[in-house]
Write a structure and sequence with these properties.
Helix content: 40-55%
Order of helices and strands: HEHEHEEEEHEHEHEEEHEHHH
Strand content: 15-25%
Structural class: alpha/beta
Length: 271
């Protein structure tokens, strides 16, 4: 009979081996849902890839996997007993539970099953040598983030996404407390849905209030990495599987995401 303790250690050794080939690991997290966390993760990954880095994007939101929609319908393959992530660009790989289950089918899993899936995504997937692996985590402080932090230890850091609303700030503070308790580094804050600019008069309208990102950045002594505007085209393109950084060229929102990626790279490269 197989020794469960041996199997567990063997699995963790595979995770360590695979993650050892990746220079930098960055998690994207939010305190609550609906703030555009996946939008930030997808465009951070694509912007880093377009800057010449070899990048992986791993969607760990088991119950709401959205990177499949945002990147277009791409499928991973299998090589022996290993998963081969979907190729988005020649230097960008992606994997999501949404690529492996029937479209529209709910993933009804308790913590142990999610933990096992994450272990497989880390240890049984052919990520190869990467400069960056970006983790798109579900909002809050649940099983997925806990499993990730426990399995691979210290990441290069966590990018926290918020909107300017005070309700969002309350939840971010809880998420930051969780990140700090787990011994992880907070890289910085991204304020999404910061404002919308009138197409006719260029007036800036702050739909969800203002100043939330600045408050958090000052409170935790981290940079405000960017204030992402609301752009009607961005939602349309996301539904069509067209990331902002690849398809909304020479726009304000594209430049904001490129600036965010540049700042993140500078912070982790000098660590």
């Amino acid at each position: 009979m197989a020794n469960p303790q041996f199997n567990l250690q063997n699995d963790l050794n595979k995770v360590k081996e695979k993650m050892g080939k990746i220079k930098h690991k960055i998690a994207v997290l939010s305190g609550k849902g609906g703030v555009g966390k996946t939008t930030v993760a997808v465009n951070l990954a694509t912007a880093l890839a377009e800057s010449g880095y070899k990048v992986g994007l791993l969607d760990l939101d088991m119950h709401g996997p959205n990177i499949v929609r945002m990147l277009g319908s791409k499928n991973p393959t299998v090589d022996g007993e290993e998963i081969v992530p979907a190729e988005v660009l020649h230097n960008l790989k992606a994997l999501s539970i949404g690529m492996l289950v029937e479209e529209g089918k709910a993933v009804i899993w308790r913590g142990p099953l999610k933990h096992s899936a994450i272990k497989q995504f880390l240890g049984d997937t052919k990520w190869g040598e990467l400069d960056y692996l970006v983790f798109d985590l579900p909002p809050g402080t649940g099983d997925e983030a806990l499993s990730l932090f426990q399995m691979i230890g210290k990441l290069d850091g966590v990018v926290m996404v918020t909107t300017p609303q005070k309700i969002s700030l309350d939840d971010v503070r809880r998420a930051v407390s969780f990140v700090q308790t787990m011994g992880q580094k907070l890289i910085g804050i991204v304020e999404n849905m910061s404002y919308v600019k009138c197409s006719k008069c260029d007036e800036i309208i702050e739909v969800f209030g203002s100043g939330g990102g600045e408050i958090l950045a000052k409170e935790y002594n981290v940079p405000l990495l960017g204030k992402v505007p609301l752009d009607p085209k961005a939602a349309k393109y996301a539904d069509e599987g067209k990331p902002i950084t690849l398809y909304l060229r020479e726009t304000e929102i594209e430049q904001v995401f490129r600036d965010i990626a540049e700042q993140v790279a500078k912070i982790v490269e000098v660590k």
